[in-house]
Design a protein that fits this description.
The structure holds two protein chains of two kinds.
Chain A lengths: L1 H6 L3 H19 L5 H12 L4 H18 L1 H7 L10 H10 L3 H34 L4 H18 L4 H15 L2 E2 L6 E2 L13 H18 L18 H10 L1 H16 L5 H15 L11 H25 L5 H12 L8 H4 L1 H34 L2 H20 L2 H19 L5 H23 L5 H4 L2 H28 L1
Antiparallel strand pairs in A: 1-2
Helix pairs in contact in A: 2-3, 2-4, 2-17, 3-4, 3-10, 3-15, 3-18, 4-14, 4-15, 4-17, 5-6, 5-7, 6-7, 6-14, 7-11, 7-12, 7-14, 7-17, 8-9, 8-20, 8-22, 9-20, 10-18, 10-19, 12-13, 12-14, 13-14, 14-15, 15-20, 18-19
Chain B lengths: L1 H23 L5 E3 L2 E3 L4 H23 L11 H23 L1 H15 L4 H22 L14
Antiparallel strand pairs in B: 1-2
Helix pairs in contact in B: 1-2, 3-4, 4-5
Classes of the chains: A mainly alpha, B mainly alpha.
Chain lengths: 493, 154
């Protein structure tokens, strides 16, 4: 492990890594640009790099942008990323009281501590879990994939049925191209460029990049907007004292954040809300929450960065993404020629250790980078939205083109961008769609191979302890809430 | 508008699903050791069977929703959206002809001016963006940016 830690300080890894963290500051600090989008935009740049450098860039962007997303959330009440939604509540109240910098410095240190705990848990849990995952059969992998999609469908904003629709549509999109078993072209319309399937990166850049641009240029009033209030001075020593007084809140929120992040389909945004809600529920002074409570800042900001470590657990161990960022990571790993899943712990153990090392060291880098981010963010936030959107659009086009030097991929990006814009307008969540495009081949392959093995028999698909557990979990994800409500109502009567 | 869009979306989903089922029926069947096994049509048909009720639900629930739900106003914002998409198509065509740098310069200037950014600011942003991408994608990561038919080296 020591060797891997030293290896990440090679210039070929260190420079792109630090650059990506600076990019993360820009992405997270700019409302409307999400961490997912930042990762999506950076993937084409990593295409020609060694895998660890690519992974370092992805980790760098994701950790930094999740933190810097809290900056506009705290100062403007506009979450820079969805994961910063819960940070707006008490952070903004503190800003209104002239304590914005206190909130932000707390946020920065809690993000670093939360991220550190998340990665430590990932290091502790992932390897033994991978040994267990090696024994998984086709049927079990099929149900695990469906479980991941179900979680994503239910936990995404909007109605669960819309989530199911989005996931099913994504699975259908994943069937375009050459059939994995027979080599038959499916739904390509004779287009050679579609034989390899619909490019996952152009689709994702369109869904998260172009659709965001369309949403923003569609709101003419917001285009030139940029304003920030006065927010005081920073004191790291004072902040450390506050954290020490609230160490249990930091620890609880970080552990909770990691666990929520590890659930396939959940992510940093859900983790932050769950941690905030839990802290408020268990607090002796719940009435202080929403009025500038320090614990109300600590809990969500520790949890959202801790969740990032958690999301890597299912991604690395089972090849099932924990959230939309790790969904993109899985796509990137496949692009680098790696096989995410339990075998990666045997085939690419050095890379896995490298990822752990990058994850831990990123938390240390996060503090100076975050401080710089806080200082320069004023300038970034002052950049009008119309300029940011044009730059994002150009990056989306070049990023989509760069993967295969294909103009067709730019049209794919545009089509998915327009679709993503309308889907969001119709309250159809995008994360299940992108997760399904990535998981589609794995789910179809395991379903078909499994059915071939059982000669079409469904018994082994269902009557196996792990399959039954996963089926129960899937049913619980969809019907657990309504069933529990029904029983509570009955009990009340 | 939202109601109409939802109905259209639901109906389109049903039509696409039916098309998928019809197209999949032309795929050859897979046979192993004399037994039929799940072939290339199996998964798409299965998904279409799930999508049809989803599409019907979208259309029917929109029809039942009664009055048009208040949603986004489609004024100058919609025009901006349409212009972004149209200019994107023109941009790709231009890129194939005149290469990356010149086409990106024109595209960026046009959009920035359309979105009411001042001329000098637009010029500065455009030049910085074009040069930044050239340096990062083209030089640092050695990604071949489009040359175009004019053969301009950048």
């Amino acid at each position: 492990m020591f060797e891997e830690i030293l290896a990440v300080f090679r210039p070929a890894i260190l420079f792109p890594w630090l650059l990506s963290m600076a990019f993360g500051v820009l992405i997270g600090g700019t409302p409307g640009l999400t961490a997912t989008m930042g990762v999506a935009l950076i993937i084409p740049v990593t295409y020609y790099m060694e895998p660890l450098a690519g992974m370092a860039m992805i980790l760098g962007v994701s950790f930094t942008s999740i933190f810097t997303g809290d900056i506009p959330a705290t100062l403007l009440r506009i979450p820079g990323t969805p994961a910063s939604g819960a940070a707006t509540l008490d952070g903004y109240e503190l800003t209104k009281q002239g304590r914005g910098m206190e909130a932000l410095s707390l946020d920065l240190l809690c993000s670093a501590i939360g991220g550190f705990i998340g990665i430590l848990l990932l290091m502790a849990v992932a390897p033994p879990l991978a040994k267990f995952a090696l024994k998984f059969t086709n049927f079990q992998y099929f149900w695990l994939g469906i479980f991941g999609l179900s979680m994503s469908a239910v936990l995404s904003a909007g109605k669960p049925l819309n989530g199911v629709l989005s996931a099913t549509l994504g699975l259908l999109v994943s069937t375009v191209g050459m059939d994995i078993t027979t080599g038959l072209p499916r739904f390509t319309g004779g287009n050679m460029e579609l034989l390899e399937g619909i490019g996952f990166i152009p689709a994702m850049v369109g869904l998260f990049g172009l659709s965001e641009v369309l949403k923003n240029v569609g709101d003419a009033k917001l285009l030139g907007e940029s304003s920030i209030p006065e927010f005081g001075r920073i004191s790291l020593l004072g902040t450390l004292k506050i954290i020490l007084r609230n160490k249990m809140t930091v620890l609880k929120a970080s552990l909770l954040g990691t666990c929520v992040g590890a659930l396939p389909g959940a992510g940093a945004d859900i983790a932050a809300w769950v941690a905030y809600g839990m802290e408020k529920k268990t607090s002796k002074n719940p009435e202080e929450f929403g009025k500038g409570s320090i614990k109300g800042v600590i809990a969500p900001t520790s949890a959202n960065n801790a969740a990032l470590g958690g999301t890597w657990i299912p991604a690395l161990v089972f090849g099932v993404p924990g959230d939309s960022i790790t969904a993109i990571v899985l796509g990137a790993m496949l692009m680098y020629g790696l096989r995410p899943g339990p075998l990666i712990f045997q085939e690419n153990l050095k890379l896995v250790h490298g990822i752990f090392a990058v994850g831990l060291i990123s938390q240390l880098f996060l503090i100076p980078v975050g401080l710089i981010g806080i200082r320069v963010f004023g300038k970034i936030l002052r950049m009008p939205r119309n300029i940011v959107m044009v730059i994002v659009l150009i990056f989306s086009v070049i990023g989509s083109y760069a993967i295969r030097n294909s103009f067709f991929d730019i049209y794919i990006m545009a089509a998915f961008g327009v679709a993503g814009f309308f889907f969001e307008y119709l309250d159809i969540p995008l994360p299940p769609l992108i997760l399904a495009i990535i998981l589609g081949p794995m789910i179809e392959d395991n379903l078909r191979v499994g059915l071939i093995k059982t000669h079409g028999g469904l018994g082994e698909f269902i009557f196996d302890p792990i399959c039954l557990t996963l089926i129960f979990l899937i049913l619980f994800v969809f019907f657990g809430g309504p069933v529990m409500k029904f029983f509570r109502r009955k009990k009340g009567e | 508008m939202k109601k109409t869009l939802r109905i259209l979306f639901g109906v389109s989903l049903v039509l696409v699903s039916l098309w998928v089922i019809r197209t999949s029926s032309t795929f050859p069947e897979a046979v192993s050791a004399g037994k039929k096994i799940p072939g290339p049509a199996f998964f798409p048909v299965l998904l279409s069977v799930v999508l049809i009720p989803c599409g019907l639900h979208q259309a029917v629930s929109a029809l039942r929703s009664g009055t048009e739900a208040a949603g986004r106003r489609w004024g100058s914002g919609a025009a901006n959206g349409a212009i972004v998409i149209l200019s994107l198509v023109v941009y790709v065509q231009l890129m194939q002809w005149m290469g990356y740098a010149l086409s990106t310069f024109i595209f960026s200037m046009f959009l920035l001016l359309r979105l009411r950014v001042g001329v000098l600011k637009a010029l500065a942003v455009t030049i910085i963006t074009v040069v930044f991408i050239l340096l990062v994608f083209g030089r640092l990561f050695q990604i071949q940016l489009p040359l175009g038919e004019l053969g301009i080296p950048w």
